[in-house]
Design goal:
The protein is mostly helical. It has four helices and no strands. The radius of gyration is 22 Å and the shape is elongated.
Length: 95
């Protein structure tokens, strides 16, 4: 109908202008999805310094007051219930 004409396109454009993630499901044809990029954790650690100005305050640091965990650290924590540092030190290791 004439009332709903182009409302979907306008909504999609408005969401993209506001930098909100949106997939146009009404798009004709297929949209190519890019390859996932490998994360270089050495570069990430450069921005994981709680002493830098945090991004939410206009800086570049992504850090929270705690140390960022790598995927390996997350897996060990999930499987054992303690961090790699705790395992290596032998402190607070569950039975």
């Amino acid at each position: 109908s004439q009332f709903f004409e182009n409302q979907y396109d306008e909504l999609v454009r408005a969401l993209r202008v506001a930098h909100l993630p949106v997939n146009d499901v009404m798009l004709d044809g297929e949209e190519a999805i890019g390859q996932a990029l490998d994360i270089r954790w050495d570069n990430v650690k450069l921005y994981d310094d709680p002493h830098l100005v945090l991004k939410k305050h206009g800086g570049w640091a992504l850090s929270k007051p705690t140390r960022m965990m790598t995927p390996k650290d997350q897996l060990i924590l999930r499987l054992t219930g303690c961090t790699l540092e705790q395992l290596l030190a032998g402190k607070d290791v569950p039975d």
